Amino acid sequence: MNQKPMLTAQDLAERFGVSIYTVYRLTTKPNGLTGYRVGRRIRFKAEEVDAYLEAQAIKPVEDAEVVQIRRFQYKPGMKVVSL
């Protein structure tokens, strides 16, 4: 059986540039990282970490999808209604 070694939370923290607690928090979110308990520690499969990163990628927006938002401009004499 030729399995790749599993990654620790410390490995992922260094790889992502975040704290270990952030890595653990990502395991509690829906669609977050999948961790495996090995003894008292949580380990992560490298393939699943890569798949998680791909799922979190921000896709570029095409020009047709860009919507300009018109800013409200107050003019003297306008009624202001608070909600």
From TrEMBL:
SUPFAM superfamilies: Putative DNA-binding domain. One of its GO terms (molecular function) is DNA binding. It holds the Pfam family HTH_17. InterPro entries: DNA-bd_dom_put_sf (IPR009061), HTH_17 (IPR041657), SinI_DNA-bd (IPR010093). Residues 6-56 form the Helix-turn-helix domain. This is Helix-turn-helix domain protein. The lineage of its organism: Bacteria, Bacillati, Bacillota, Clostridia, Eubacteriales.
